[in-house]
Amino acid sequence: MTHLPQSRVRTIMKTADGADNIGKEAVFLSTRATEMFIKLLVKEGYRNTNSAKKLNYNNLVNVIHNKSRYEFLEIVIPKKITVRQYKELMAKKENRQQDKGSSDEHSNSDNDENNS
Amino acid sequence: MEKPELVDDIGHPFLSDQTYMVQADDMDDDGEQLTAENTDDSNHDGDKMGIPLREQDRFLPIANVAKIMKRAIPETGKIAKDARECVQECVSEFISFITSEASERCHMEKRKTINGEDILFAMSTLGFDNYVEPLKLYLQKYREAAKTDKNLHTIHSNDIVFEEIPDDNYNSSMTGNILATDAGTTETVIFTYQQDNVHQFQIG
C-alpha cells in the first residue's frame, strides 16, 4: 500500500494559520486522511467521466463545483473556459451595462464584441 | 560479512533499525519517514522563521499522489496529466484546510499542540465525518505500535530478547518474506539478524 511522506505532510500542515506545534498523531492522521481524500476525489471524478475511462481535469472540476464538501477547492481549481466563451461572457456583461441606461457609444462597442 | 549485506539487499522496510512497522498491514513502508527528527516539533522551529517554502515543498510528490490515484480507478482507466496536478494541488489545500480547523479547536481549548483528536474533530466538522471511524482505527493501531516500540527499546538492553519471542513468530509473514528471497542462506540470515534487530519485528 502506498503511503504519503509524513514529513512533507507536516511541512504543508505548518503553512496553515495558527499551526505552531503539531503532534505526531496529528501528522499521522492527516497523512492517512489525505490518502483517503485522494481516493474519494478520484473515484467521484472518474464517475463523472461516464465510462470514458480517462480522468480529465474537467471531471475533477465538475465534482468540485457541484459538491458542497469540496467547496473549499472551488477557488483553487477554477473552471476552464475557452476564449470564445470568455468573449461571450464579456459581451453579456456589456449588454447588462447597456440595459442600465448608458449612452449610445456602448452599443457600438457592443457590436464590435459580438462580431468577434 | 555477507549477512548484513544480504539484509540490506532485501531492502524491506522492516529491516531498518528505525522501524516502527511491525504490523504487516498498513503500518509498514514509510516508517523511515517517522524519525524522531521529523516528528518532533521542537527541532523544526526553523520551518516557520520566514523561510519561504520551495514550490516542491508545498505539494506532495506527484509520484506518490499518482500511485494512489491509480488505485482508485479500474485497471483500464487512465489519468490525464493535468488531472494529476490538479489532485496534487487539491491535496495541499485539503491538508491546510483540515489543519486550520484543527488548530482553531486546539487554541480554543488553550492547548499549544495540535493532536489527533483535533484532526478528527476537523474532519467531522468539515464534511468528512465518514473518515472519522476508519481514522480512529488507524490511530489505535498507531498507538499500539508506538507502545510496543517503547517496550522494544527497553528489551533491547537486556539479552532476553529470544526468550520473549515465541517460536511461531518465526513463521510469520516477515520471515516468510525472507525465506522467499533465498532459501539456501536464509536460515543464517535470520539468526544473525535476530541478534541485531529481530526483536523489532517479532513483537506485535
UniProtKB/TrEMBL annotation, chain A:
CC per GO annotation: CHRAC
Disordered: region residues: 92-116
Biased composition regions of type Basic and acidic residues, renumbered to the chain: 92-109
Native source species: Oryctes borbonicus
Molecular-function GO terms, alphabetical: protein heterodimerization activity
Keywords, in A-Z order: Nucleus
UniProt keyword Nucleus present: yes
CDD domains, per the entry: HFD_CHRAC1-like (cd22924)
The name this protein goes by in its record: Transcription factor CBF/NF-Y/archaeal histone domain-containing protein
Cellular location(s): Nucleus
Domain of life: Eukaryota
Keyword Ligase set for record: no
Segments forming domain Transcription factor CBF/NF-Y/archaeal histone: 3-54
GO biological process, one term: chromatin remodeling
From TrEMBL, chain B:
GO cellular component terms given for this protein: CCAAT-binding factor complex; nucleoplasm
UniProt feature coiled coil, ranges: none
Pfam families: CBFD_NFYB_HMF
Subcellular location: Nucleus
Ranges where the record places region Disordered: 26-48
Lineage, uppermost ranks: Eukaryota, Metazoa, Ecdysozoa, Arthropoda, Hexapoda
Signal peptide start-end: none
PANTHER family linked to this entry: CCAAT-BINDING TRANSCRIPTION FACTOR-RELATED (PTHR11064), NUCLEAR TRANSCRIPTION FACTOR Y SUBUNIT BETA (PTHR11064:SF9)
Family stated for the protein in its record: Belongs to the NFYB/HAP3 subunit family.
Known role: Component of the sequence-specific heterotrimeric transcription factor (NF-Y) which specifically recognizes a 5'-CCAAT-3' box motif found in the promoters of its target genes. NF-Y can function as both an activator and a repressor, depending on its interacting cofactors.
Protein name, per record: Nuclear transcription factor Y subunit beta
Assigned keywords, A-Z: Activator, DNA-binding, Nucleus, Transcription, Transcription regulation
Domain Transcription factor CBF/NF-Y/archaeal histone: 59-123
GO function terms (MF aspect): DNA-binding transcription activator activity, RNA polymerase II-specific; protein heterodimerization activity; RNA polymerase II cis-regulatory region sequence-specific DNA binding
